[in-house]
C-alpha cells in the first residue's frame, strides 16, 4: 500500500493524502496523464472507472464514470484549473449526471496533486479543499476517504506495467461502451510536431495513406470551427477511390480537436471523432475517441481492418515525418 498518511483538517476544510512510490516522478505523472492508466486506479476495485475524455491541460476537461458491482454507472468530471508538468495539477472535481453534465444537486470540490522526488522514488500529495464543513462531512459519510484509499492502493500494479507507454506496442483499440471506441498510439515525437502532421496538407499526404499502394490526391483541411474538411485516397493503379468529409466542431491547438466524419457517397452514417494529444516522457499519446450511431455500425467499421490501417499510417508518420523533423 503506497499511502503513508491520510489527514483531515476540519478547521481548514481539507483532506490530505500522502503516498510514496518507488518510481521516478515522471513515471508517476504519466500514469495520471494517460487515460488508459488512470482508469485502472481512479475508481476503487469494486467501482472501476472508465475515462471517456481526459484533457490534461489548463482549461481542459475529463469525463469519467465508475461502474457499481450491480453494473450501474456513476458519472464524474474534472475541470483542469492549472497544470505544471510534471510537478502539479489542480482540478475542480464533481459529480455528473447521465448526460455527462455537472450534477447541480451534488457538491464539487477543488483538488491539488503535487509530485516530488524522494530518495527512494517519488511522493504524491493529494489535497481536497471543501467549500463547507457540511460538504466535507457529507462526502466523508459517502465513503470518500475509504474510496480514495482503496483506489490508490491499485497504483503500484499500474506503475509496474510499462506496456501502455511503449511506442512499439502500436495502435490499440478499446471499447468504452456500446457506441464508443478509443484508438490510442504513443508516437515518438513532440506534441506540436504531431499536431502539425495532422493539420498541414503537405505533411498529411506523406503519412496518412494506410497500407502501401495508396496516395492521397485530395487533402482539404478545416482549420477553424465550423469549417469543412475533405480527404480522398486513390489506389496507385487507379482502380479504387474513396474519401471522408466532415465539419470541425472544436479546435484547441495543439492538444484537442473534435470533428464529424462521414464517408463520401456512402449514405448519412456519421461519427464524432475526438482527438487528444498528451505529452509523455517518451513521446506523445494520441487518443482518438470515436462515437458511432450504434453498436452494429461500430462493429461493422472496426471489422474492416481500420485499426491495422491506422497503424500502417502512424508507423509511417513516425518514420517519414516525426523522425525527420
Give the gist of this structure.
By secondary structure, the protein is an alpha+beta fold. It has helices at residues 25-33, 35-38, 133-141, 144-152, 155-159, 191-197, 201-207, 295-302, 306-322, and strands at residues 3-9, 14-21, 49-54, 61-67, 73-84, 88-96, 108-118, 121-129, 172-175, 180-187, 214-220, 228-235, 241-252, 256-263, 271-280, 283-291. The strands form two sheets. It has an eight-stranded antiparallel beta sheet with strand order 1-2-8-7-6-5-4-3.
Structural class: alpha+beta
- Assign the CATH class of the largest domain: Alpha Beta
Return the domain count.
2
The proportion of residues in beta strands is 35-45%
Distance between the termini: 43 Å
- The largest sheet has its strands arranged as 1-2-8-7-6-5-4-3
Mean pLDDT: 93
